[in-house]
Every structure is written in C-alpha cells, then in structure tokens.
Specification:
Order of helices and strands: HHEHHEHHEEHEHEHE
Organism: Candidatus Yanofskybacteria bacterium RIFCSPHIGHO2_01_FULL_41_21
CATH topology of the largest domain: Rossmann fold
Strand content: 15-25%
CATH architecture of the largest domain: 3-Layer(aba) Sandwich
Distance between the termini: 40 Å
Number of strands: 7
Family: Belongs to the ComF/GntX family.
Protein name: Phosphoribosyltransferase domain-containing protein
Number of helices: 9
Largest sheet: 5 strands, parallel
Low-confidence stretches: none
InterPro entries: ComF/GntX_DNA_util-trans, DZR_2, PRTase-like, PRTase_dom
CATH class of the largest domain: Alpha Beta
Shape: globular
Radius of gyration: 18 Å
Amino acid sequence: MFKWFIDLVFPYRCIVCGKYLNHEYFCRSCFNSLPIKKQNECIGCQRPTPLGKTCTFCRDSYAVDQLLVASDFKNPAVASTIKLFKYHFLHDLAQPLSQLSFKYLDHLAKRDHFSMAQNNPLLVPVPLHKKREYWRGFNQAELLARLIARHYRLDIGEGLVRSVDSIPQAKLENRPKRLLNVQGLYKCKKPEVFKDRHVILVDDVCTTGATLNECARVLKDAGAVSVIALAIARG
C-alpha cells in the first residue's frame, strides 16, 4: 500500500523523454537510442587498441590487462542515468545500465568473437568503504556485477575490500591526484579465492583508470592470472 502511494505521488518517468511508465525509467525507444562504444581503447593512454588491451607503452604502469567500456559518459542520457544511480540512490537503475552492458558485450561477441565465459572468470565489483556504502545504502558496482554474473552464469569473487576511506575520486580533478588518492586503499581478505583465476573487475565509471588499476594490482598480488576491467562508461 505504501509502495502504491509512493508510485502515485512520484510516478516513474522515462529519464530521457519524460514519458510516464510502469515501474521503469526508460521507454523502449529511448533505451534503444543509448549508444554503445564501438571503439575500444587502452586504459592508460586511451589510444585505440584491439578489445581494449593495455598497450605496450602502458603495460608497465597498469595492472589491468584489458578495458571494456559499454558507453560514453559524454552522452547526456548515459551521464544522467549514472548520476541518478549513484547520487540519488535509484538502485533500480542497475537494471537498464546492466542491460546496456549486455548490448555492448553482444556487439563484441558478434564483431570480435569475445566471450564473457572464456576462462570461466570471476566477476569482482570494485568495493566501497563500509562508511560510504552505509550512507548510499548499496554498492553500485556490486549491483551491476551481480546482474551481469546472473546473465552470463558466472560466479562472484568475494574478498576484495576497501579498507581505507578517502576523498571520492570524482572530487579530484587531475590524474596525478587520482593516482595518489587510491594507493593502499584496497586489500584482499581471501587471496585463495583469486589464486590462478581470471577476473573481470566491474565498475560504473572509468575516468583515469586509477581505481581499476589499484584493484587489479591487489588482485594480481593475490594470485589472479589476468584482470579485465568492465565499466558502463568512461568519463
């Protein structure tokens, strides 16, 4: 009854066109118009590379072996959806954002024969500090990772944690500060989970790649064979 009252006072509307909907935030037409990223790029220098593999020049500085980005944060609809998801606590938006990643990954499967199930990887969400997760009520990366894992019938790897709270990356403007800000923030409580395993690291947004890189470094120190980063958008 309470949910019915809330839906009456605050009805669902399409984020893009404003059309009234039934328990959804995108009409079909607007969701289909969301772009997927057609060109993959190196996580470091952002030059085009096959399937987003880290280039030779950046390989020594980045633990991420490959970066897959579903869409572009410069697209207003994509940016608005991610901001509503993270900062307005609309956890239901994990559904359309994960579907956007499926659309992108299906494109890679058809064009480049990429398979999410290759090497039976573990999906690992980028963790939040407990204090920030309590404040938000959820970890957006974990919601996305669980939906992606369910869709592709993959396991979630648990044990990567954020042990230190710090300034959110979004509040730091330049790359050197972001790289410095993430050092030592993450640790692996269960290294045996990741030993000799391939990992797909999931996050909502990749900007400089500092967070993904630090998480990948910790996972490889725990014994992970390779780390592919999967983000919904790159800012």
